[in-house]
Design brief:
Length: about 180
């Protein structure tokens, strides 16, 4: 008689695998490590952030297909002004233009804050094999790295918007859906 270490079922046959769950007899039970648990928690959090409202059914597929290029402009920085002010007839383009305008506001705010933080300078000595060759003023890494990562996150949001347009979806951008300056 064998007992499966995965499901706990007993079987009287001398099979190599459990007839109930398919686990191999004699194999050790898989242990879940802390790293796997943390990975699962992160995966759940990311999926929760990316799970936004999808209102694609409210828009016509023909509208999305015919106005794809104009909707794509919505996520290309200041080019969002073209669909926002010129395309009033297409509901699909209007939806993405509004999201693009909200993203533009965040990008402009980021640019201002990034520029101001870049003005913070510290004096560093330039040394080579113990000899001091001079000094220079630089922005510390602990300012540059978070600013750079925030800029990358804004770029990723724009890419997500472009992907949604290419798929013909009218889905809210993650994190931007909380900030609705333009409606």
């Amino acid at each position: 008689m064998a007992v499966c270490k995965e499901c706990g079922k007993e079987t009287k046959t001398k099979a190599k695998f459990c007839p109930s769950c398919g686990a191999e007899f004699g194999a050790k039970k898989k242990e879940v490590s802390k790293t796997d648990e943390i990975g699962e928690v992160i995966k759940e959090k990311v999926e929760k952030v990316l799970d936004t409202d999808d209102s694609t059914k409210e828009y016509e597929k023909k509208d999305a297909k015919d106005n794809l290029a104009m909707a794509l402009l919505s996520y290309l920085g200041f080019l969002v002004l073209i669909p926002y002010f010129l395309e009033k007839n297409s509901k699909f383009v209007r939806y993405h233009a509004i999201q693009g305008m909200n993203l533009l506001v965040i990008w402009v705010g980021y640019s201002v804050v990034s520029g101001l933080l870049g003005l913070i300078k510290v004096t560093k000595s330039v040394t080579y094999w113990g000899y001091v060759y001079g000094t220079m003023k630089i922005t510390p890494w602990w300012i540059n790295v978070p600013v750079y990562l925030l800029g990358c996150a804004i770029g990723v949001l724009a890419i997500i918007g472009i992907v949604y347009v290419c798929q013909g979806k009218a889905k809210e951008l993650p994190l931007i859906n909380k900030l609705k300056i333009f409606k």
